[in-house]
Amino acid sequence: MIAPETLESIANATAQQSELNEATLAALKKTWPDLRFTLCNDDDMPARLSPALKREKFNLYLVNGSEHCLSLTDDPLQAIGVVLAEVDDDAL
Asked: What is the pTM of this model?
């Protein structure tokens, strides 16, 4: 489970980074070691799924780990991780 306050804290910590990269993921993993973090481009995310949280330069999506394989979810009760999806400046 990822509480809304935790997701907001993750977004705030991510927003303080100069860019989204492996160093960003490492910092998040250090702060929240029990969560999984993944980085991708927002264009790679399925259109059918809305972000759990939107920011100007990135969106956060939730990862479900209740099945044998990881999948995306909109249910924070099932979430075990977060996808940081960078929003392309050209798309704005």
From this structure: 0.91
